Amino acid sequence: MPCSGTVIVVDDDEAVRSSMRFALELEGLDVRLYDGGASLLAAGDLPAAGCLLIDQYMPEMEGVDLIARLRERHVDLPAILMTAKSTEELRRRAGQAGAELVVEKPFGDGALMDGIHRALGPR
């Protein structure tokens, strides 16, 4: 499936951001990294096409809250929420905020890349 756009990775862990950049660039994808919700919200040049890959548990703002704030600003890029612990309540909240997918760390079964390719594919 052809993909275009930029993957925006928001995670407070520098090692995670770095490894995500490496893996996504190996897939031929453009990547932008942000260390938290505030830095993404302060960015004035978000791409028109792409997807959001947002960690749930960050110190300053949870991923679900960041997705909701982006939706309030009419940022409608597909959002994928990453978490170490997925619960029914978190999946419900993520869906209400506008996340298309919740994926659990570690990413071993291909669900993350499949979700990214779906998000970047034809809409």
From TrEMBL:
KW Phosphoprotein (keyword) present: yes
PROSITE patterns found in the cross-reference section: RESPONSE_REGULATORY
Residues with 4-aspartylphosphate modification: 55
Domain Response regulatory intervals: 6-120
Entry keyword Acetylation: no
Pfam family, one: Response_reg
GO biological process: phosphorelay signal transduction system
Keyword vocabulary terms for this entry: Phosphoprotein, Transcription, Transcription regulation
Protein name, as recorded: Response regulator
Taxonomic source organism: Hansschlegelia quercus
